[in-house]
Amino acid sequence: MPDVTLAPHPDRLLPADPGVRAIARGLLDSVAGLPIISPHGHVPAHWLADDVPFTDPTSLLITPDHYVTRLLHADGAELSTFGVGEGPLTEQQARAAFRAVCARWDVVRGTPVRLWFEAQLVDLFGVALRPSAGTADRIYDAVAAALATEAFRPRALYARFGLEVLATTDDPCDDLAAHARLRDDPTWTGRVVPTFRPDRYLETARDGWNADVDRLGEVSGVEVGDYAGFVRALEARRAHFVAHGAVSTDHSHRDARTDPLDPAEASRLYAAARRGQVTVTEATALRRHLVGEMARMSCDDGLVMTLHPGVWRDHHRPTYERYGADVGTDIPVAVEYTDALRPMLSRYGTHPGFQVVLFTLDETVFSREIAPLAGFYPSVYAGAPWWFLDAPDAIRRYRAAITESAGFAKTSGFVDDTRAFCSIPARHDLARRIDAGFVAGLVAEHRLDEEEAYAVLHDLVVTNPRKAFKL
Amino acid sequence: MPDVTLAPHPDRLLPADPGVRAIARGLLDSVAGLPIISPHGHVPAHWLADDVPFTDPTSLLITPDHYVTRLLHADGAELSTFGVGEGPLTEQQARAAFRAVCARWDVVRGTPVRLWFEAQLVDLFGVALRPSAGTADRIYDAVAAALATEAFRPRALYARFGLEVLATTDDPCDDLAAHARLRDDPTWTGRVVPTFRPDRYLETARDGWNADVDRLGEVSGVEVGDYAGFVRALEARRAHFVAHGAVSTDHSHRDARTDPLDPAEASRLYAAARRGQVTVTEATALRRHLVGEMARMSCDDGLVMTLHPGVWRDHHRPTYERYGADVGTDIPVAVEYTDALRPMLSRYGTHPGFQVVLFTLDETVFSREIAPLAGFYPSVYAGAPWWFLDAPDAIRRYRAAITESAGFAKTSGFVDDTRAFCSIPARHDLARRIDAGFVAGLVAEHRLDEEEAYAVLHDLVVTNPRKAFKL
Amino acid sequence: MPDVTLAPHPDRLLPADPGVRAIARGLLDSVAGLPIISPHGHVPAHWLADDVPFTDPTSLLITPDHYVTRLLHADGAELSTFGVGEGPLTEQQARAAFRAVCARWDVVRGTPVRLWFEAQLVDLFGVALRPSAGTADRIYDAVAAALATEAFRPRALYARFGLEVLATTDDPCDDLAAHARLRDDPTWTGRVVPTFRPDRYLETARDGWNADVDRLGEVSGVEVGDYAGFVRALEARRAHFVAHGAVSTDHSHRDARTDPLDPAEASRLYAAARRGQVTVTEATALRRHLVGEMARMSCDDGLVMTLHPGVWRDHHRPTYERYGADVGTDIPVAVEYTDALRPMLSRYGTHPGFQVVLFTLDETVFSREIAPLAGFYPSVYAGAPWWFLDAPDAIRRYRAAITESAGFAKTSGFVDDTRAFCSIPARHDLARRIDAGFVAGLVAEHRLDEEEAYAVLHDLVVTNPRKAFKL
C-alpha cells in the first residue's frame, strides 16, 4: 500500500451543498482568531505548572486516550498492546504500540478519532502522512523529534493552541498545589482552573468510602464524625477550590436524582455509612440528597454545577480488574432529568447565584428534557454534546434538537472533556466547523439573517462558555 | 443598532438544495389557497361569539403565549415583566411588557417563536421591523392602531386567516354557551367546535375533585353518588358536546395507560374517592380505567380521542404557586404507548366507530411505537408534532420517523394547539413549508413521483385532518 | 386514472445534492456485481430443496408479507382480504386479493414497501405498471405467467438474485431435512444455512412449553427430566444445526437480560416449570439465565448469537386469535442493552470464540448503547437496522448514530430478515444505495477519502456480513 499524504481540505466538515458551504466558510473564518475556552477537561495541571517535556508519542497521544484504544480493542487487540496499564514505556514499547495503532488505522474510519488524530499530525507536528503499517515509524520519529524541542513543551503548546482558560478535574482532597504554583508564577500568563469533583465522597456504600472521608476530615481540618461535620468539610474544600480559581463542580452518578432527605434521616444514613452499615438503597438516597446539597452550596459559593450522569462505569469487569478505570469500558445508559431534577430546580432553579449545565450521553433527553428545562429555567444550560457525542453528526443532532426549544443562548459552548492535550485544538476546530455549518443552514433556509449568524457563531465560541461557566 | 427591516423570503424554510427547493416551491404554491383546518387549540370561543376588539398588543400576542414568555424567563426575566399574572394591563403596563420582549429579542433566534412572531408582524400587521429596544414602541403603536380597526376584530381575522374550522378545548361542565351563540347566529358562517377535555374529572385524588364531581352531577342532571352515575354523567356531558358540534375529546395525563378494572373494583375506588379516601395508587388505577372507558364511549358517540400524555405539569412549584398553570413551566417526560394502549386497542382498536390520535413530546416513540401502531390499527393516527416539536427540524424528524412505517395517510395533519390566535396562519404556513420540503426531498430522490407529491401535500393540508378528526 | 408507467430512476435513493450524488453513483456502481449475502431471514429451505414452482402472485408476494398487509389493514381492510389465514388460495381468491392490494396502493406512498414491490415488478417480472384498480389484473396476469416458467422456479431465482448464502430460521426440533437434501444434492451449488431459534424452549411459563420440551427430549435423544439434561438436549440440537451448516442462533425475547442463576436455582426453576408450577417472574429469571447459557454454548460451538429483543408480539389479541402470529400486529417497545448484557459480556465479551450481533427496533440504543458496546467489545457487532427500520431514512439515521462511536467495521452489513423471497434483491439494493449515499456524504465533507470510500462500501456489502456471521 503506497503512503497516503494527508491534505486536510479547508472546507472539511462543512455542509456539502455549495450554497450552504459558502455561508459556512465565511462564518468559520470569522471565528478563526478567537481563543479556545476549555471549561471542562482532564489534562493534569502539573504538566503546565512544571512544564516538563513529554516523553514519547505513544504516552502523549495514544495510551491515555480511551477514544483511540477502545476502537482498537473492539477490533481484537489487547489494551496492553497500546501501553495501557504498562506504566512508563520504554522507547521500544512506545514504538511497538505506535506501530500497532497505525497498522489498524482503518478501523477508525468514519469516527472523529480519525479526524482529530490526523489533524494533530498535520497541524501540530507537520507530519502529512496517514498512519499505516508502512508509515508508523516515520510518523513516530517525526513526532518524537518534535516533542524533544522547546516548542512542544506544555506551556508553549498552551500558548500555541490559543487557550484562554483550561479546566482540570480534581479530587476534593487535592491540595491543588500545581494550580497554586501556576497562580504564583509571574512568568505564567495563562489560566488553569480546578474543578471540584466529589463523586467518590457522595457514594457512601462504595469500598473505601470511610477511608476517603477520614482523609477529607484531615485535609479540611473539619471533624467529620457526624453528618453536619461532613457537610462542613465539603464546604471547606469547595472554598479551597474557589480560592484556587475553580468555577465549577462536576458530578457523574448513575442517575441525576436530587431528592432531599430530612436532616435527621440524612444524619442517620451518614452515621450508618460511617459504621459501614449503609445499604445500597440507603446510600443511593443519601447520594441523591447530597447532590441537592451541592446545589445549595452552589447558590452560596457560586460554583457552576455540571452534571454528567448515565454511564455504567467499568462495564467489562475483567478489564477493570486488570487495567483500572477510564480505559474505554464505560457504557452509557438511559437518563431521566425532568423528574430527577425537580426537587433541586424547585428549590434553586431561579436562584440568582445558581447555574447548572446538563450533559448527556442519552440523546433522547436533548429535545424532550434538556431543551425544555433550559428554555424555562434561567439557571439551566444545555451542555454541549459530550464524549461519544462530540462528533460531527452527533453535534448536528444536538443543535437541531436543542435550538428550537432553547435557542442558542442557553447552550454551554463546546466542551472537549479530554485527557488528550494535543487534540484540544482539533476538537474545538471540529465543533466550530459543525456549528458554522448548522448556523449556515439556518441562513440558507432564511431562518436567520446572515449578520445574526455571525453574532451567533461568535457567541457559541466565546460568549456562551464564559457565561455558562462564569468565566 | 440600526433598525432591521423584515423581508420574509418567499423560499423561507424550504430546503437549501436548489433542485429540491424548486420542487418544494411548486408544491407549496399548490396548497397556498387551501383553507386552514385547526382541529385542536385553545382560542376562547367567546372571542368569536362576541367579536369584541382585542385590547392591546401585549395581551393578544405576548402574555398568553407561554412559547414566548418561557424563553424570556430562561434569559432571566420575571414572568410578570410580560404581564403574566398581572390581570388586565394598563396601556403603560402593556407597552412596558412589549418593550421588555423586544429588548430581549435575540434570545429567540433559531426558535419557531421568532418565525411565527415576525410573520405575524409583517403578514398580518404590515409592520416590517425586527423587534428590538429601538423598534419596540413603533411596533407597539402600529399593532395597537391595527387592533382598533374593524379588520382586526376576531371574526374578520377568522375570515382573513381562511379558517375552515377552529376547535376550542373545554371543561365537561362548560355550558358551551359561546358555541351555541355562534351556532344560532345567522351572520356567522364559520365553524367553531368544542373539545371535551375531562382530565380533572378522571384524577380522583386531585384536590377539588369531589367538588368538581358535585358540579358535574348538577350540570348533567345525573346523580353521581356511585360509579355508574358518574359514568352516566360523563356520557351525558359528551352528548352535550356532540350536540354543540364537538368532534373530539382530549386527554393529557402523566402516562397513557388504559388498563381496565373490573366493575366492582371501579365502583369501590370511586366510592373511596368520593369519601376522600382514595390513595394515589388507587386513583391512578381508576384514571387508567376511565381513559379506557372514554374509548368505549367514543365507539358509541363517535368522538375522536386525542392523547397528549407525558408532561410534568407545573414543574417549578414556586412559579405555579405565583402564576398558576400554563405559563411555560411544563416539562416533558418519557412516554410509553405500546404496552399502555394494549388493553384499549385490543378491545376497540378495530371498532369501526373508533379513532384515536396519538401525540407525543417524546420523539423516541415516533418510529418505535406510534408509526407501528398507526401502520396496523385502522383506528390509530399519528398526531402531528406537538408543542415543543412543532418547529422546522422537529417536523422533519417526525416525517422521517413516521412515514416509512405508517405512510402519509395515517398522520393527523398539522395541529397548532395554540392560545395565540394571530399566530395560527404563521404556524400552519411553517408546517406546510416543511412538509412541502420533505415531500420534495422524496421526489428529488425518486422515492415519489412528482404528481403523487402534489396529491400527498394536498392530503396533508386538508384531507388528513378532516379524516383524522371526522370533520 | 390513467396507467402510470414505472421507470425506476438509476439515481433513485441517492442523495439529492448533485455533488454528493455523483460520488454515490460511482460507489454504487462499484458494488453492483457483488453477491447478496443474506445471513438472517425467513424463506423456507424446502422451497429451494424441492424447487417447486410458486402457485400464484398473491401467495408469493402478498399474503406472507406482513409489511404489505399491515399497511392495508391500517387503511381499514380485513387481513383476510389479502389471503391471510385463508389457507391455499383459489385463482379467484388470489386475483381478488391482488386487486384489493392494487386498489389501495396509495397508502404505501413514502414507505419502503412501495419501493421494494415496484422494484420487483419491474426488475424481476418486467411489469412496468404502477399497481392500481385499473392495472391490477394486467399485473396479476403478467406475474402469474412468469411464475409458470422455469426461470421463476426458486433455484433459478436464487441464482438470478446472485445470492451467495441464504439463512433460514428454524425450530431446534426441526430435522433440517430440507437443508440435508440441499447439502446432499450434487446439482445444487448454492448455500442455505439454518439458524437455531430456541425462543419457545426458553420461555418456561408459556402454554405448551412442557410438550415442546418433551419433544426436544425425543428429537435429541437426551433425557430432559432435569435441568442438566435440558441443557444437554439444547447443546445436542445446536450440534445438529452446526452439522447442517448453521452459523448463528437467533433470540427474540421481550428484554435482553442475561442475569445468571446459580445452578441449584436454575435446576429448581426448571423442575417447577416441568411440574407446570413456575411463576411468570421465575420463568423470566430462568429465561434470562438461559440466554446467558446460549452465550456460553456459543463460545464452545462457535455459533454467532443474534439478539432481536423488544417486540410486543401479537399486540392485537383478536387478530392473533383469528390469524395467528406474524401477521403485522407485533409492536416494538423500548429496549435496554447496557445493563442487560453486562453479565453475559463480563463473562464472554472478550472470548475469542464469541460473537453477538445486536439488533433493535428502538433507535435510541443505536448511539447510546449499541455503538459504545460494539466500539469496545471485540465480540459485539451492531446489527443492521431491522424490520421497521430497514428503510431509507432509518438506515441513514443508523449509520449516522453508529459510525462515529463504532466505525464501519463493527456493523453487521444489511440483513433482509424477510419472508418475501422475491423482495430480497430490492431490499439489498435499497440498502446499498443508502449506504453509498451515506459514505458519499462523508467524502463530500472531506471526512473520508474517496479511495477509502470504495473500500468501505465493498466491506459493508460483503466483508462485514461474512465476518459478523462467520461465513
From TrEMBL, chains A, B, C:
Keywords: Isomerase. It catalyses: D-glucuronate = D-fructuronate. One of its GO terms (molecular function) is glucuronate isomerase activity. Its EC number is 5.3.1.12. Gene3D superfamilies: Metal-dependent hydrolases, uronate isomerase, domain 2, chain A. Pathway: Carbohydrate metabolism; pentose and glucuronate interconversion. InterPro entries: Metal_Hydrolase (IPR032466), Uronate_isomerase (IPR003766). Belongs to the metallo-dependent hydrolases superfamily. Uronate isomerase family. This is Uronate isomerase. It comes from Microlunatus antarcticus.
